[in-house]
Write a structure and sequence with these properties.
The chain is α/β, with parallel strands linked by helices and 490 residues long. The protein has 13 helices and 19 strands.
Length: 490
């Protein structure tokens, strides 16, 4: 059942940008040349300069994104942008956002929000669990709303391709929430590599400390009462129906394939970002994965529901122009590459959340999460190192405000779907390989007696066609089935 919006505290719609323009035009006979200082003094921002923002998923990470987009002005004691609608299926999780923006209309169902408040919305933030990203974002895009979507952009490879194409079709401003892409450091890494500082790069290692939530789980069977503040049916959205259980909400959904994308989906959009940008990576030609063995009641299982405790993934990319082929290796769940010989025994690999190691034929570069603190190895090479020329434009403001400014006609943001869509496809190809690892096959394993994966398989990928060419069973993970009422339309 769709929820009813809570009436705004004040007459929110009277303050919308479009109505302000209309009223101001009537007041001055159709001429809009009133100086801003006359209207409001120093640092005054006219309502017509503000973006009307709505958000789907306003608790947790969504709250931080909303704050980043609205930029509270300490001089004027006001937010720089209008928040006209807030949608969240959990009134407790979204409470702080509701309190920060009391004039915003409140919804539980993003479909109702777009239907009833769409005319007053310029841009939509989507910060839900992964499985809702694509359906909510595409619904907004089809109404020609600019969109900011948290990482990973989508839940499946096919969804990422769909949103990438839709961004072009509808001519809107897009951004994915991989904030390191707007940093100074990712640009420095690109400029070092493009200047030939470490020569040709043929190998990259990427690792993370994730998961920091339970994985390798078996679906719970006990009955648990749904909290009164949570609309469980709307939380499920496009996912298959299942009973509520606290092992899914509010945080551990990442460890379930129906809702999340595991350690890879959580962090790879941050961690492989510098490799994709600096090495100009496109579709991989192959991907292979292996993961931890899982047990339940002393029996080995092929867990098709929960992401594994740990995994290692190997990607291969073809040559790009003058850049040679590249192999990229991903590690999670405590797995890490061997320490490079150039790193001193007490020097940390990356940072506490993960890292990236570029191996060139003339040297190595290592950085932490979000491309932070890049350095040459051995680190003594940084003494007296002269940075190459800056050839990439720097981002003004933060990752969120660069999107807001672009929505108002400023420079395009750095992680629009033309870039982040392909980045997401690369990430999710790893998950496709992991899930294929646990596929059941016809013949039982001679040793374990289970009908499961019989050996590591290199999956050959036809990127333009979005198809595994040598193992058809794996293609079921390119897309997914949507629950009635939450289909990916168009």
């Amino acid at each position: 059942m769709k929820s009813k919006p809570t009436p705004p505290v004040a007459n929110q719609t009277k303050n919308s940008r479009r109505q302000f323009v209309k009223q101001a035009a009537l007041a001055v006979g159709g001429f809009m040349i009133v100086p801003r200082y006359v209207l409001g003094g120093k640092n005054y921002q006219a309502p017509s300069d503000k973006l009307n923002i709505a958000i789907v998923g306003a608790g947790g990470r969504g709250r931080g994104v909303l704050e980043g987009c609205t930029s509270f002005n300490r001089d004027t004691k006001a937010y720089q942008e209008n928040v006209v609608a807030i949608c969240d299926v959990d009134s407790v999780r979204a409470k702080e956002s509701f309190n920060n923006f009391p004039n915003a209309l409140r919804y539980q169902d993003y479909r109702e929000m777009l239907d009833k408040s769409g005319k007053d919305i310029d841009a939509v933030i989507v910060a839900t669990p992964d499985h809702v990203h694509a359906v909510a974002a595409l619904s907004a895009m089809q109404l020609h709303k600019h969109v900011y979507v948290e990482k990973p952009l989508t839940h499946t490879v096919a969804e990422a391709r769909k949103l990438t194409e839709a961004a072009v079709q509808y001519g809107i401003v897009t951004q994915m929430g991989n904030q390191g892409n707007s940093s100074e450091d990712i640009r420095r890494i690109c400029e070092w590599i493009w200047a030939g500082t470490i020569g040709d790069v043929r190998e990259v290692h990427v690792w993370t400390n994730r998961p920091v939530w339970p994985q390798g789980l078996v679906r719970p069977t006990e009955s648990v009462k749904i909290p009164k503040t949570l609309n469980w049916d709307l939380w499920l959205g496009p996912a298959p129906q299942r009973p509520y259980h606290p092992t899914y909400v509010p945080f551990s959904w990442r460890g379930w394939w129906d809702f999340g994308t595991g350690a890879l989906g959580d962090m790879a959009c941050h961690l492989i970002d510098p490799a994709v940008m600096a090495l100009k990576l496109g579709y991989p030609t192959s991907v292979e994965a292996f993961a931890t063995t899982q047990f339940n009641d002393w029996k080995q299982i092929n867990n098709l529901e929960s992401t594994p405790i740990a995994s290692v993934i190997h990607y291969e990319f073809p040559a790009r122009g003058e850049m040679p082929p590249v192999k990229m290796h991903w590690y999670d769940g405590g797995m890490m590459p061997q320490r490079p010989d150039e790193l001193l025994p007490n020097e940390q690999m990356g940072d506490s959340s993960g890292g990236v190691l570029f191996i060139g034929d003339k040297g190595k570069i290592m950085c932490g999460t979000y491309s932070a603190n890049p350095k040459l190895l051995p680190t003594s090479k940084m003494e007296g190192f002269v940075e190459p020329a800056k050839v990439i434009p720097r981002v003004e403001g933060n990752h969120q405000t660069s999107w807001v400014n672009a929505c108002k006609g400023g420079p395009a943001p750095s992680a629009g779907f033309d870039y982040s869509g392909k980045l997401t496809e690369i990430v999710l190809m790893g998950n496709l390989a992991i899930r294929s690892f646990f596929l059941q096959e016809d013949k039982p394993n001679a040793i374990t007696g289970t009908t499961g994966y019989t050996g590591r398989r290199k999956l050959m990928w036809d990127g333009p066609s979005m198809r595994i060419t040598n193992y058809d069973l794996a293609n079921q993970f390119v897309t997914k089935t949507y629950r009635a009422g939450f289909e990916l339309k168009g």
